[in-house]
From TrEMBL:
Quaternary structure note: Homodimer.
SIS domain sequence ranges: 39-178, 211-353
Localization annotation: Cytoplasm
Domain of life where this protein originates: Bacteria
Protein name: Glutamine--fructose-6-phosphate aminotransferase [isomerizing]
First-to-last residue of the parent protein present: 244 to 606 of 606
Annotated catalysed reactions: D-fructose 6-phosphate + L-glutamine = D-glucosamine 6-phosphate + L-glutamate
Catalytic residues (positions): K358 (for fru-6p isomerization activity)
Group of enzyme by EC: transferase
Species this protein is from: Rhodovulum viride
Keyword RNA-binding: no
Function description: Catalyzes the first step in hexosamine metabolism, converting fructose-6P into glucosamine-6P using glutamine as a nitrogen source.
EC number of the protein: 2.6.1.16
Keywords: Aminotransferase, Cytoplasm, Glutamine amidotransferase, Repeat, Transferase
Length: 363
């Protein structure tokens, strides 16, 4: 059932072009020009969105915050469920509450949802398991249609969560009158092109495997990203530590000089995720600060970024160019592959990492 792959995680990484394509087609109809969310979600009375999840699903929410705020102009709060549920934050009228969970059974996320029931105007969940508790207890459940995810480390669920959250952001923007039909059509075209770009990212597999053999020898790794690449830096660190047991931290690039730069030395690789977007120059200058202190930099960028980054980086991985908005979905793939191949090089139990469970139904 691993379909010829050595691990479920490898299979699930490879499935992403297909499952994201299916998920987008499901919500965009055959022509792919209209967003058709079930239950006609109405943003007219919505003044803010609160998003709650755990782990990788939380990082999908953090990415979506950039999209929703930029596209729809609605303020978005994102919390980890275990903090949210005990903080018991005020939920003002006009709040749309969104819960994201692959399993739909995560105890803290479910408890946070129950806290919002009767307080938030509407409860929407983004789940992989359509018959799950979180789906059942929501006003509206949006399935991500990733198919069963067996590997404990979440991969295809993350990119499909991002796909559905991108559609939610675009629909909110449309209803808020912030997207012309032409602009929406452009975004949808760009989104539909993402699965094809995923294939180009998967084609980097051999290079990533070679890099991973080097990563397998270190004990600490830093990930840096700016803007919507910041949550991806966190995701890169989470994925690497969970399956390879290498200590990894993700930081917003701009936070580097506020502490983590003290860790930089030649034995600590710094993985910088920087597509050539409007924030590129800022991130490159952070990268140069790392290199000036002898830190080996692995730059993940696109062709323009690679051309402009200058010399001195340890290695560069070149991804296809992607629209700024949706680049985080694409950059998820090399990050997953790096974690996967590093874990394989170390000989860890990739699909069943120590101490972790696929579904965390106790708090
Ligand atoms: C990371 C991972 C976990 C889950 C988290 C939430 O690779 O798999 O961090 O993302 O336990 O699980 P769900 O999405 O089922 O609520």
């Amino acid at each position: 059932e691993k379909g010829g792959y050595k691990h479920f995680m490898a299979k699930e990484i490879a499935e992403q072009p297909a499952v994201l394509g299916d998920a987008l087609r499901h919500y965009l109809g055959e022509e792919g020009t209209r967003i058709e969310l079930p239950g006609d979600i109405d943003f007219s009375g919505v003044t803010r969105i609160t998003m709650v999840a755990c782990g990788t699903a939380y990082l999908a929410c953090l990415t979506a915050k950039y999209w929703i705020e930029r596209l729809a102009g609605l303020p978005v709060d994102v919390d980890v469920a275990s903090e949210f549920r005990y903080r018991e934050p005020p939920i003002p009228g006009g709040t749309l509450a969104v819960f994201v969970s692959q399993s739909g059974e995560t105890a803290d996320t479910l408890a946070a949802l129950r806290y919002c029931a009767g307080r938030a105007d509407r409860i929407v969940s983004v789940v992989n398991v359509a018959e799950s508790s979180i789906a059942r207890e929501s006003d509206l459940a949006l399935p991500i249609l990733a198919g069963a995810e067996i590997g404990v480390a979440s991969t295809k669920a993350f990119t499909c969560q991002l796909g559905v959250l991108a559609l939610l952001a675009l629909e909110a923007a449309r209803q808020c009158g912030r997207l012309s039909p032409a602009a929406l059509a452009d975004h949808l075209t760009a989104l539909r092109a993402m699965p094809g770009r995923f294939n180009a990212a998967l084609a980097l597999q051999d290079r990533i495997e070679a890099l991973a053999r080097r990563l397998a020898e270190v004990t600490d790794v830093l990930f840096l990203g700016r803007g919507a690449m910041y949550p991806l830096a966190l995701e890169g660190a989470l994925k690497l530590k969970e399956i390879s047991y290498i200590h990894a931290e993700g930081y917003a690039s701009g936070e580097l000089k506020h502490g983590p730069i003290a860790l930089v030395e030649k034995t600590v690789p710094v993985i910088v995720m920087a597509p050539h977007d409007r924030l590129f120059d800022k991130t490159v200058s952070n990268m140069q600060e790392v290199m000036a202190r002898g830190g080996p930099v692995l730059l993940i960028t696109d062709a323009r970024g690679a051309a402009e980054a200058g010399s001195g980086v340890w290695e560069t991985l070149v991804l296809p160019e992607a629209p700024e908005l949706f680049a985080p979905m694409l950059y998820a793939l090399p990050v997953q592959l790096l974690a996967y191949h590093t874990a394989v090089a170390k000989g860890t139990d990739v699909d069943q990492p120590r101490n972790l469970a696929k579904s965390v139904t106790v708090e």
